[in-house]
Write a structure and sequence with these properties.
alpha/beta; 2 domains; 15 strands; globular
C-alpha cells in the first residue's frame, strides 16, 4: 500500500441492523472510500450474509484496499426487526456484543489488511466514528476512548425534529395522549404548528405511559446527538430547508448529503469508476418485472411496495388487492414471502376473484430492483410505506406517492408528502378497498397532472443538490474535509 494511502483517515461506520439503515450508510461508505478514506463497516452477521447472497457486495467494496467489514453475531436468528419489541431486543443485544468490538477498534494502534495467507498493508488508528443516530452504545464507547463521533440519522430531518421536540410536547401536556381523537393539532413542534396532528407523530408516541422503554430510549438517544461533532442527514436543502433551519438552532453542524443513492451514481460516473451495485436487497431481485414494465404505456403503472420490514394481515392484503384491481390501473406489487403476519392454510388458497384480477392488470414479484423500477418511464405512481429511502428515491425520480405509514418516522414523512410538499396522498390509519381505489384513481388519473408537475419541480431540486456545486455536494466535501482535519491536517 502506498505511503499516502496509509496516512489517510480511518472511519468506522456503524448502522442499526435493518436494511433501511444499512443501505444509505453503505452508500456513504462507498463515497468516503472513493475519497481515499479507510473505512471499517460494522454489520450484523445475519444482514451481512444475506447481502452476500443477494447482492454483489464483495466486488463492490473489494476494489477499495482500505475498506473492510467487521461483523457482529447478535444471536437473534436471521429475522428482521418488525416491531418496537424486536428493535429493543436488537439494541439490547448490541449493547452486549458491540461494546468489546468497538473498544478493540478504537484502542488498537493499527490494523493489518490481508488475505488468508499474507498481509497486504495496514490501516491507521481510527480517526472518527460515524454512528447510526439510534445507537447509544456506539457514542458511549467512542466518548470513553476519545474518538470524535458524527451521528447519521437515516430518517428524514423532519422526523428527527419531531423526536427532538418530544420533551417540549411532554412539558406542554401534548404527550402522552389517549383516546381516538388523532386529528387534534400538535402545537409544540416548531415549524410544524400549522399542519402536524397527533396521528402524524412518530408511531411510538401513541401510548399512555411515558415510561415505556422504547419511548424513553428514542427520546434519550435523540438528545445525545448534542454531544457529537455533527449530524448527517440523507436529505437535501431544497426538500427540508425550513426544518433544517430549526435543527441548526440547537445543532449547528448539520451535513445534508442526499439523496445518497443519486450522489454515489453521479460520483462514479464523473470518475469513470463504473456502475455502483447500489442494490442492497436482502432477497433475490425478480428482474422479470422490468421486462413487463417495458411493455406498458408511459406513466401508466402504480408501483406498490411496503419495504423490507412492514408486515400486513390477511385482511389488509385483501383490501389492498381489491382496491388496486378495482381501480383499473396497471400495478407492479412487491409481496415479500414474509409480508403476511397471520399466514395460514386459508391464505394459501387465495380467492379466485383476486387471482383473476391480478392477471388482468397486475404483476407481482417477491422483491424488485426498486431504484430501477422507480426510474422506469412507465411508472406513474408509488404506493409506499413512507420509509425515508423509498420516499427520497421517489422524489428523485419525480414519482408521486400514496403513503401508508406504519412505523417510527413514516407517519411524519407521509404528512410532509401529502400536506407540505404536495407530492401525493396520505392513506394513514385506514385500509379500506373503496378508499384505496379512489386514491389510486386520483393519483393516476384525476389529479395526475397536478402531482406530476409538483414531483417534476422537486426532482429538479434533488438533482441539482447532488450536481456540481449543489448543496449536497458541498456538504459532502465539507464532511470529508472535517474527517481529514481530525486526522491531523487537510486532505493532501
Amino acid at each position: 500500500m502506498e505511503q499516502g494511502a496509509r496516512q489517510a483517515p480511518h472511519v468506522v461506520i456503524f448502522p442499526f441492523p435493518a436494511l433501511g439503515h444499512v443501505h444509505p450508510m453503505l452508500n456513504l461508505a462507498e463515497l468516503l472510500s472513493l475519497s481515499g478514506i479507510h473505512v471499517t463497516f460494522i454489520n450484523a452477521l445475519s444482514i451481512h450474509n444475506r447481502l452476500l447472497r443477494c447482492t454483489d457486495l464483495q466486488s463492490r467494496f473489494g476494489r477499495f484496499p482500505g475498506f473492510r467489514f467487521k461483523t457482529i453475531n447478535l444471536g437473534l436468528g436471521d429475522g428482521l426487526p418488525h416491531t418496537s419489541d424486536d428493535i429493543m431486543a436488537v439494541l439490547k443485544s448490541l449493547r452486549t456484543t458491540a461494546k468489546p468490538l468497538l473498544k478493540e477498534l478504537f484502542l488498537l494502534d493499527n490494523y493489518e489488511l490481508g488475505t488468508t495467507d499474507k498481509v497486504i498493508g495496514q490501516v491507521p488508528p481510527v480517526t472518527c466514528l460515524i454512528s447510526d443516530g439510534i445507537l447509544s452504545i456506539a457514542l458511549e464507547v467512542a466518548e470513553d476512548c476519545g474518538i470524535p463521533t458524527f451521528h447519521f440519522r437515516t430518517s428524514s430531518a423532519s422526523s428527527f425534529w419531531a423526536y427532538y421536540c418530544i420533551p417540549q410536547l411532554i412539558h406542554a401536556g401534548e404527550l402522552p395522549f389517549s383516546g381516538n381523537d388523532l386529528d387534534t393539532p400538535i402545537a409544540n413542534v416548531k415549524g410544524m404548528e400549522t399542519f402536524l396532528r397527533r396521528r402524524d407523530l412518530p408511531s411510538f408516541c401513541r401510548m399512555d405511559n411515558l415510561g415505556e422503554e422504547a419511548f424513553q430510549y428514542v427520546m434519550s438517544v435523540t438528545l445525545s446527538t448534542l454531544g457529537t461533532k455533527g449530524l448527517i442527514f440523507n436529505t437535501f436543502e431544497g426538500l427540508e430547508g425550513p426544518i433544517l433551519d430549526q435543527i441548526r438552532v440547537d445543532i449547528p453542524n448539520v451535513y445534508t448529503i442526499g439523496p445518497l443513492h443519486a450522489h454515489l451514481k453521479n460520483k462514479l460516473a464523473s470518475e469513470s469508476k463504473g456502475k455502483s451495485i447500489s442494490s442492497s436487497g436482502l432477497w433475490e431481485e425478480d428482474r422479470s418485472c422490468l421486462k413487463w414494465l417495458d411493455e406498458q404505456p408511459s406513466r401508466s403503472v402504480l408501483y406498490v411496495s411496503f419495504g423490507s420490514v412492514i408486515t400486513l394481515t390477511k385482511h389488509e392484503l385483501t383490501e389492498f388487492w381489491h382496491g388496486l384491481v378495482n381501480s383499473g390501473q396497471q400495478f407492479l406489487w412487491v409481496i415479500r414471502h414474509d409480508v403476511i403476519k397471520d399466514k395460514d392454510d386459508e391464505f394459501a388458497h387465495m380467492d379466485v376473484e383476486l387471482r383473476e384480477g391480478l392477471t388482468k392488470n397486475g404483476y407481482v414479484v417477491s422483491w424488485a430492483p426498486q431504484e430501477e423500477v422507480l426510474a422506469h418511464p412507465t411508472i406513474g405512481g408509488f404506493l409506499t410505506h413512507s420509509g425515508w429511502n423509498s420516499t427520497l428515491e421517489s422524489v428523485y425520480e419525480a414519482v408521486p406517492m400514496i403513503c401508508w405509514p406504519q412505523l417510527a418516522d413514516q407517519q411524519v414523512n407521509s404528512r410532509f408528502v401529502g400536506e407540505v410538499w404536495k407530492l401525493g396522498l396520505d392513506l394513514k390509519d385506514t385500509c379500506d378497498r373503496v378508499i384505496i381505489e379512489k386514491m389510486v384513481r386520483d393519483l393516476m388519473e384525476a389529479r395526475r397532472n397536478e402531482f406530476l408537475e409538483r414531483a417534476n419541480d422537486m426532482a429538479k431540486f434533488a438533482r441539482a443538490s447532488v450536481g456540481e456545486g449543489g448543496s449536497s455536494t458541498r456538504n459532502l466535501e465539507r464532511l470529508i474535509q472535517d474527517i481529514f482535519s481530525f486526522h491531523g491536517g487537510g486532505k493532501a
